[in-house]
Amino acid sequence: MKGNAKKALAILGIGLCLVGAGWAQTGTKMKITVANYQMEPTPPDAELLKAYENKFGVDFDVFNIDHDKYHELLNVKLAAGEIPDFFYIKQADTLGTYVKQGVLAKLSPELIQKNAPNLWKVITTYAPGYMEMGKVNGIQYGIPSVNPTNIIHIPLIYRADWMKKVGVTKTPETLAEFESLMYKFAKNDPAGTGKKDTYGLSRDGLTAVFGAFGLVPFDVETDYWMLDGGKVINDSVAPAAKQALALLAKWYKDGVIDPEFVTGENQGGYWAISHAFVKGRIGFTAHANYYHWAMPGVFQQVDDSGKKTPNQPGAVAKELLASNPSAQLAYGPPLKGPTGKQGIKQYNRLMNFYCVGKLAENDPAKVAKVLQILDESANPDFVARTSFKFGQEGKYWKLLDKDSEAFNFIAPYDKDESYWSRIGGVLSMEVPYPPKEAGAQWAIQKLGYGKYGIESVIQVGLPKAMKYKDELMKIRDQYYIGIITGAMPVSAFDEFVQKYMASGGAEAQQEANDYYAAQSKK
Amino acid sequence: MRTQGLSGGTNDSLRPTILPRRGKTLAGRYWDCRYLVILLTPGILYFVIFKYLPIYGLVIAFKDYNFIDGIFKSPWVGLSVFKELFSTPSFWSVFRNTVILGFLQFIVGFPAPIIFALLLNEVLNTRFKRTVQTISYLPYFVSWVILGGLFLQFLSPSEGPVNYIIKSMGGRPVFFLGDTHWFRGVLVATGVWKSVGWSSIVYLAALSSIDTELYEAAEIDGAGRWMKMRFITLPSLAPVITIMLILATGSLVDDNFDQVFNLYNPAVYSVGDVMSTYIYRKGLQSMEYSAAAALGLFKNLLAFAIVMASNKLAKRINEYGIW
Amino acid sequence: MSIAGHNIRGGRGFDAFPAINGFLMICFCFITLYPFLFLITSSFSALNASVNGLSLIPRSFTADNYDRVLRNPLIYSGFKNTVVRTLLGTALSLLATLTLAYPLSRKYFPNRGLWTGLIVFTMFFSGGLIPTYLLVRTLGLIDKPWALILPELISAYNFVIVRNYMQTIPDALEESAKIDGANDIKILFRIILPTCKPIIATVALWVAVWHWNAWFDCLIYITKPAGEVLQLVMRRIVIQGTDQITEMMGGKHDAITPEGLKAATILVTTLPILCVYPFVQKYFVKGVMMGSLKG
User: Fold this and answer.
1) B89: cis peptide before it, omega within 30°?
2) CB contact under 8 A, B139 and C32
3) Quick check: B37 contacting C, CB < 8 Å?
4) d(C-alpha A333, C-alpha A155), whole Å
5) Is the CB of residue B232 less than 8 Å away from at least one CB of chain C?
6) Are residues A401 and A306 in contact, defined by beta-carbon separation less than 8 angstroms?
7) What residues in C contact A147, CB-CB < 8 Å?
8) Interface predicted TM-score (ipTM) of this complex, two decimals
């Protein structure tokens, strides 16, 4: 009897353990709160959300923060103690501030490598040095989202039909050639109207001129830093900028620069349109990106049926042709300046950061889970990682050509820019796999726009630089515009540098140098 | 029927005489007006809960605020936030711009709706009057995001109709939005255009409640249009105008962020950058909540002081005031 | 004042004033309408680089913009939410403001100045966004329509205007009612309010328009798309084409939002409220107040 009782107890015990284990497994799932870039709010029962809840074995709670006021709204939630586990930082230069506020969890390269191996690989291979940008005070907090197409610098666009009219056959390569062409555009009536109603360039064209001196000192919302004799300085106070400004002041006086440049080339609406260029006021611009300016047929694309066809015009090229069907475009290389530099602005490849919220720090399983979710965006299979954001292939979008990774959205989603937010494609991030699509290849191979782009040597926002940024940029804008329009003499540049440094520029510069030195040691 | 109170004697006669009075104690006086107290309660509750409970947030201006510590535990720094704010070089120019702009907008923008209402009131044809009124408040509904782009084209020296007219009259085109001499004028003019119709509604409402008998009587006595306005219309409008005036002085230090933000550019920062645009740029980049709160508090204190002063002044002149 | 400009007792024969006035009004209308016509034209235009300078004839006619606006699934729920908050919010706000203003308009009310002062104080000083958000959250109002109605239920500004208007009502009205034995609540609703029609209409209009146009409170307090208001949905559409970063994140690079879409959006959102005003206008009829005192 005792033996049987013991056996019975043993069986009961084991049985209970099994039941207990089973019960524990079907207990509450891990909950992950998500804040990411969204174009529209995501309903809780969204298709993709449910699919990934199953795949990852979690419950998602999306914060639905409107992207337009993203930081403002996120900060309200943070202040109320609602810290997302999946934490997207839209403005990359605020990473340091969030770390200071104590709302981010500490990560480490090992942790990332272990849980997000594909992500680690793609960033360290194609964007070396960028992973380090996610470190603050030596500790890894954020994973950078790197834009692959930003290796293509901003375009240099000329009115080819105007060039013909004024007798110039080759697109300018040096600053001197450029100057000559701009004067011709302004003085020699390239539009054939008989009136003096044209100019060479406007606001965005100035970028090309500064680029010829190796600088991006003006008209940018983020700081561009450069090396000057081993020291890191802000482009705005570089000595060469004075030369560039002198040149521009002369052009303005001679009526080569559009006097309305201060209000910009775009007059509202779709940001990429240069109204000044499209309406035929100026003959050169560097506004927007290469793909906006693709004229029909400059490269071959794969169409819906899988055949190779000439491309459709880019958005702005389309507007230009609608305004003026006989207009033609020429794409020029970055200009070579008198100091031997050559280049033009390139947008920072560092777009945003993805982090883990502080609340998850005590739960290593949760941290690992967030990293695993991020890893999905780096899936080497193009279809897999594209479906992660855009939904099922064949239902929402169609793959046209595997080699050029061309795809189209299926109607009605082709006219619905934000559908992917609605169906729950809100767990993805941008990864720097090299762009294979035809337009990008055209820009890189044919136009050579993958070279000579000027990037900032420091792409993160350092605390002092952030603190003084607004003030310093305001001073910069006032002086630069003042000098160009002739309201101030070129010699005022020295006064500008003094004022700039005294208003916090010197502190920011010291900080930048310290940071650069620390980064270079690794 | 008692005739005692009809001559507008002391207001004591209005207190309930039907139920027993509780006398001169405070509680007693509240009891006498208990129905009024009932009416008052929901509103007061609202203010206590939704306005006074959150008011502790004002202390952010005196703290080095961060999220983790929250409002209560963030370190107290006293007036240093204000000191830092006031020592920023651009602060005073920004402050000056705000005040000048507010002043100009007040001088032009306050009388405009009144004059418009008076003129509109004189229109005979009811249908025409209603049409004009409806059209007049249309601009109020369009946001500055749209209007910014619209005015950019409208006032463009090269292709805008305004400069077109100037050029055809032989003048030189004016770069309204890029010229520091004109920018303030543009802000005031466009601001008035957008709001004159809407703001006139309250005056039209007041005008409509003036007894027509008064006008008829004046007509019989031979009064012309302008005499009627001087002796009947304007005095009747006096209470409304006074209150609106006092309240409007509060916005002397206020600025219209939407408008300035959508119209300004670096060429006109020296006259166009105002407190709200300044703090917007500052706040957005560096999440400087304390600075933003300090600036807000500073503005509010000023507005409060100005309104109280104008209230006292108004009471001295014609007895109407906010209280 | 519809009495014509003739003087009974002679004086100038022809009075130029009505003609000048009329002319001024017409000019004013034209200046005000022009940008609107421009917007309407733009909303029917397919292209972006605006129509011929400032001409009013679209270069290529299309109803595409309206199609896109109306096809957005959130439009209908947005419309419903906006209508609900506007009607409910305006009604409650009016009620609350009137019941608050009336007692404080009575000169004999104890501590009248103090209560008014406390209210006016809030017009200038407030705790700010974060404490208010915390309060709303603590009250459990997140994602509830009440979060859009309660926080701004009574505007101190409106309160001041209403209170002052009520102060100008002759005492005779209240006196005769009290003599007849009515209590204050009855007096307010039966006698005072009917004479306040113009100011009620004005404040109702202000509050209704505010509710109709409000979007920021929805942004903070509502997280589910089904609870969003119309203006928020519209705003999102309008700014889509203007954000550079948006495009880089959007995936495909040739999706653009035509300028015309903006215009179509404006028209869709402002049209309803514009249609309501003419009905409100009839409350601004003269003699409403004085009539009650005769006899």
Assistant:
1) no
2) yes
3) yes
4) 8
5) no
6) yes
7) 248
8) 0.81
**Which residues of chain A lie closer than 8 angstroms to B74, CB-CB?**
none
In A, minimum Cα distance to B283 occurs at A72
CA atoms within 13 A on the CB side of A1: 0
Q: A313 phi and psi, to 5 degrees?
A: -65, 150
Give the 3-state secondary structure of A455-491.
CCCCCCCCHHHHHHHHHHHHHHHHHHHHHHHCCCCCC
CB A347 within 8 A of CB A147: yes
CA atoms of B71 and B77, how far apart (whole Å) = 13
Number of H helices, E strands in chain C: 15, 0
- Say how far apart CA C153 and CA C95 lie, in whole Å: 10
Q: Which amino acid is at C140?
A: G
Residue A420: both structure tokens together: 């992917």
Distance in angstroms (rounded) separating the CA atoms of residues B8 and B4: 8
* The token pair that represents A254 in the structure block: 């001679």
Yes or no: say if C150 and B43 are a contact pair by the CB < 8 Å rule. Answer: no
* Whether B89 and A71 lie within 8 Å, measured CB to CB: no
How do residues A320-338 score in pLDDT, each as one tens digit? 998 889 999 999 999 999 9
Residue A121 carries which side chain, given as an amino acid letter? K
Please give the residue of chain C at the shortest CA–CA distance from A291: C253
Task: Report how far residue A444's alpha carbon sits from residue A150's, in angstroms, rounded to the nearest whole number.
Answer: 11
Q: What is the mean pLDDT of residues B165-191?
A: 86
CA distance C88 to chain A (A): 25
Question: What percent of chain A is modeled with pLDDT above 70?
Answer: 94
Question: A100: which 2 tokens?
Answer: 């200071």
pLDDT confidence of residue B287: 64
Greater pLDDT, C69 or A142: A142
A4-34: b (≥16 Cβ within 10 Å) or e: eeeeeeeeeeeeeeeeeeeeeeeeeeeebbb
Closest C-chain CA to B118: C1
Please say whether the beta carbons of A96 and A461 come within 8 A. Answer: yes
User: Taking CB atoms and an 8 Å cutoff, what residues of chain B touch C198?
Assistant: 205-206, 208-209
C-beta of residue C254 within 8 angstroms of C-beta of residue A311: no
Is pLDDT at A29 greater than 60 in this prediction? yes
Chain B stretch 141-200, residues whose beta carbon is closer than 8 A to a beta carbon of chain A: 148-150, 152-153, 156-159, 175, 177-178
Average pLDDT (A42-59) is: 93
Nearest to B37 by CA among C166, C106, C196, C181: C106
For residue A72, give every residue at least 6 positions away whose Cβ sits within 8 Å of its Cβ, in sequence order, or none: B284
CA–CA gap between residue A264 and residue A246 (Å, rounded): 21
Decide if B243 and C183 are in contact by the 8 Å CB cutoff.
no
Q: How many CB pairs under 8 A join A and B?
A: 84
Interface test with B, best of A257, A468, A474, A495 (most B CBs within 10 A): A474
- Using CB atoms within 10 Å of the CB of residue C20, give its burial: 0 to 12 exposed, 13 to 18 middle, 19+ buried: exposed
Residue with tokens 């009416």: B39
Chain C residues with CB-CB distance to A42 below 8 A: 225
Contact residues for C140 (Cβ-Cβ < 8 A; gap 6+) = none
DSSP-H helix ranges across A26-155: 47-56, 70-79, 95-100, 109-115, 117-126
Of B89, B171, C25, whose CA–CA distance to A498 is shortest? B89
